[in-house]
Amino acid sequence: MKRFLIPLLAALALPVETIASPTYLTCDLSENRSNYSAGESKLINGKITVVENPNSTFTDWGKSTKQSIIKFTLNEEDQKGSVYFSHSGLTKKLAFVNFQPESILISNPSGGYKEYEKNTDVYEISRIDGSIFRQAKLLGGAIILESRGTCIKSTPKKTMF
Q: Does residue 13 belong to any structural domain of this protein?
């Protein structure tokens, strides 16, 4: 009896390694606002730099004119993921994914080979209520677009391969 009882107790007491599966989120960005004069390009010390415009303001929040559905595939174990934009059919790997207890932070720089041309997308997804906030900075921050909405967990497509 001891021969079976001791391994059984050891198996129950030792932690079991779990395999983390990806999280699939479908997000609907239903409201947006913009600031088209957030910054301006200036020549400083021989370099073109975007300087923040302190007098710029955002438009009021309004309903999106186009349906903007974004699908995320996120892996908490290795802090990586990808995003699929339904309006363009484009899928991109995400540069930065950080899972925190109450939120998921995502950042994805794109475009431009010079600093003043770069675009960045930053997402914050609440793990509490599923809300999402997106801030897109275009042309190095000269234009800022913000969106918000909700995310729900979804399941992956079932495929043969």
A: no
